Amino acid sequence: xxxxxxxxxxxxxxxYEQRSQARANRDEGRAVLEHHKEITAKxxxxxxxxxxxxxxxxxxxxxxxxxxxxxxxAEAVVAAAERAQALAQARYNELVRAADGAEAAVxxxxxxxxxxxxxxxxxxxxxxxxxxxxxxxxxxxYVPSEWHTPVNxxxxxxxxxxxxxxxxxxRDPLHVPVNELQSxxxxxxDLLAARRAAMIRGDEPVEAAA
Length: 210
Hints:
- The chain has 2 domains: 129 residues, Orthogonal Bundle (Helix Hairpins), CATH 1.10.287; 56 residues, no CATH class.
- It has 5 helices and no strands.
- Helix 1 packs antiparallel against helix 2.
């Protein structure tokens, strides 16, 4: 596992923990809000019942000031409950946004892991293809080039060799990299023939068996 993926895995674990806490905070905030809603509803109901009872009863002029004060006190109680509910609502909204952010952080961490995995696979493929291209280039040294073979001479090739050569696009002789121009001046068939002659003479050591 490469370092990028290790870091992204650690990031995801942290994101999981933060999401769990954010969800718990949000759920707790919802419970607090519902509690305040119940309290506010009860306070309003009590106030409205008392107000209705006053409207239906005969009011003594002497009791009017005290009755008015009780009404103001009841209104203050309802107003306080509404303020507390509003604060609970604001807090709950913050917790919901935090939970949404935590969910997004988890998704981003997962995407980060996928990105690290893609990059790791791409690096492995690039490394593998570089080896394949090098092997194919080596294999081509053993195969006569159409560019250096008379048109009336048939190039024979084993099916396995042809399949291996098709593993990468054929080299375009018109677009040879600068660092290969020097070696490209000598046809591969000539290089192979020279090596063959050297091996026949015994000038090239034979590889030892593994």
